[in-house]
Write a structure and sequence with these properties.
Blueprint (H helix, E strand, L loop, with lengths): L4 E5 L3 H13 L4 E6 L10 E4 L1 H10 L1 H10 L1 E2 L2 E5 L2 E5 L5 E4 H15 L2 E4 L12 E4 L6 H5 L4 E5 L3 E7 L6 E7 L4 E9 L3 E8 L1 H6 L2 H8 L11 H10 L1 H4 L15 E5 L3 E2 L2 E3 L14 H18 L3 H31 L9 H9 L7 H7 L1 H12 L7 H7 L2 E3 L2 E3 L9 E4 L8 H8 L5 E4 L4 H18 L3 E6 L3 H9 L5 E5 L4
Parallel strand pairs: 1-2, 1-9, 2-8, 5-12, 9-17, 20-21, 21-22, 22-23
Antiparallel strand pairs: 3-7, 4-7, 5-6, 10-15, 11-14, 12-13, 13-14, 16-17, 18-19
Helix pairs in contact: 1-4, 1-10, 2-3, 2-10, 3-4, 10-11, 12-14, 13-14, 15-18
Protein name: Oxidoreductase
Organism: Amycolatopsis acidicola
Pfam families: FAD_binding_3
């Protein structure tokens, strides 16, 4: 198809990138971006671009990627818990200042011939365009005004974004235990000599520290809409003083919030199509917001080029993009639940905790992590069961003996007779899960459906049982999922596993 005029609502990464790719694909088409904000003002700090995203951008538009990489900062990753740290290589990840990212994308969009309009709020219904690309963010007015079947799930934890005016040497994950509870920092360097600090906590800690009150104050009359929670920032820079190295925390519309996961039954209506956060979101702990938006842009333009009309193109765009988006949303959901329950794991040695972190969503196997970070995994394995093997890692994990209280087991698959606990739920931290755990009176064998998502959920519930009751736990699962079970054992999610010959 050959569009005559395309309007893009939203001048974030997804909207700008879609506009450039559209203009490159259709030089005769008039493409205009409408952004309600000003070009020199943006919300946020640093943005992460992982290796896979960089490969996709390289294939779609190498010129833009080259400038993004040139302005970015590469870094590894460190976790520090109770005075001990572990470092793993991750230098394919780059941190880019959001201001730099937008400047690069604006420059390349204009270079391609895209017109940019700033400072004016536009609505899809009032635009004279063949196609309207709605990239207007998580609070998309376009989505709310349409019939896209939107559903929004709000997380339990609270978080805020802030920054610091110095570059960390690595990305760092570190908790601080206070008189109110635990706060966890996710921090990483980005271009311009600065670092992002994302800090999260649970609701009880948030209320104990009085941050429910500071949040309410910001919602009062006379408070500028862009004001930051300065009381929270001053407290947080005090408790994270060791990580900040004498620097303060910088706010930019910094307020406590809960993560909203957006899902839509439909991504298009008439001549309007949703892109990026307007259509879907995935928790920040998998670093996916910018990735999904820019990859949506690639997928949308490819679908338009392959289709005779907008309706066919939008259907093809959704058909090709939805599976990968939903897969990432499921990984992000598991990751969000893991981070919201993170403080319960602080008794685990930091190396084993790093294994737990890497395997938390089922996306990175123990074998794969051992291949990329052999020193960290070797230490975790020694803590778990002695000198690690040269051969089959998974089988070695299953073969390690266990002492639990006054009971000893020759390996992790010799499961005694335990009370069976059938589990078929989606959230192992839900009220339904709470009720199951409240009924545990002794050792349990956690059973349920044979599919992989159900097994991963069982492992998480078994971890809660271990940590909250001290009971001996075993998880039943198909032998084909031994890799997941081995990661669960090293991560402290279960004591034993019972293998079945069921098909996954």
């Amino acid at each position: 198809m050959q569009p005559r005029r395309v309007a893009v609502l939203g001048g974030g990464p997804g909207g700008l990138y879609a506009a450039r790719l559209l203009k490159l694909a259709y030089p005769a088409c008039e493409v205009q971006v409408h952004e309600q904000g000003e070009p020199d003002k943006t919300f946020g700090f640093g943005v992460g671009l992982a290796a896979g995203t960089q490969r996709n951008l390289e294939a779609a538009d190498p010129d833009t990627l080259r400038d993004l990489v040139a302005t970015g900062v590469r870094h590894d990753m460190t976790m520090r818990v109770r005075g001990r740290g572990v470092r793993v290589r991750n230098d394919h990840l780059i941190g880019v200042a959001r201001t730099d990212l937008l400047a690069v994308l604006q420059r390349h969009a204009e270079k391609a011939g895209v017109r940019l309009e700033f400072g004016v709020r536009r609505a899809a219904a009032g635009l004279d365009a063949d196609l309207v690309v709605a990239a207007d963010g998580v609070s998309s007015a376009t989505r709310e005004a349409g019939s896209f079947g939107a559903r929004i799930e709000t997380g339990d934890g609270l978080f805020l974004w802030c920054g610091a005016d110095f570059p960390l040497p690595d990305a760092v994950f570190t908790p601080v235990e206070t008189e109110y509870g635990t706060f966890v920092a996710h921090a990483y360097p980005y271009s311009g000599g600065r670092s992002t600090f994302l800090i999260e906590t649970d609701e009880r800690t948030w209320r104990n520290a009085g941050f429910d009150a500071t949040t309410a104050e910001l919602e009062g009359e006379g408070v500028p809409p862009g004001a930051s929670d300065e009381k929270s920032l001053r407290y947080l820079e005090k408790i994270f003083a060791g990580q900040l190295r004498g620097h303060g925390l910088i706010g930019n519309r910094t307020r406590w919030q809960r993560f909203r996961t957006v899902r839509c039954d439909r991504w298009a209506q008439g001549n309007v199509v949703l892109l990026g956060d307007a259509a879907h979101t995935a928790h920040f702990s998998v670093g996916s917001g910018t990735k999904l938006a820019m990859e949506d842009a690639i997928g949308l333009v490819a679908a338009l080029r392959e289709s005779p009309d907008p309706a066919t193109a939008f259907a093809r765009y959704e058909e090709t993009r939805r599976p990968s988006v939903e897969r990432l949303q499921e990984l992000a959901r598991r990751s969000r639940l893991w981070w919201e329950s993170f403080p319960s794991r602080l008794g685990l040695p930091v190396e084993r905790l790093m294994v737990a972190y890497m395997s938390r969503a089922g996306n990175v196997s123990l074998d794969r992590f051992a291949g990329t970070s052999p020193d960290a995994v070797a230490t975790a394995l020694r803590q778990y069961g002695g000198a690690p093997p040269d051969g089959d890692l998974v089988q070695w994990v299953l073969d390690r003996p266990l002492t639990h209280g006054n009971r000893s087991f020759p390996d992790r698959v010799s499961v005694p007779e335990l009370e069976p606990l059938y589990v078929d739920l989606r959230n192992p931290w839900s009220p339904e899960a709470d009720a199951l755990i409240a009924g545990v009176r002794g050792g349990v064998l956690v059973t349920g459906p044979a599919d992989r998502p159900a097994v991963l959920t069982r492992l998480d519930l078994a971890e809660r049982i271990r940590l909250e009751t001290g009971a001996l736990t075993a998880v039943e699962a198909p032998r084909a999922l031994s890799g997941d079970l081995a990661a669960g054992l090293v991560s402290g999610r279960t004591d034993l596993v019972q293998l079945t010959e069921e098909q996954v």
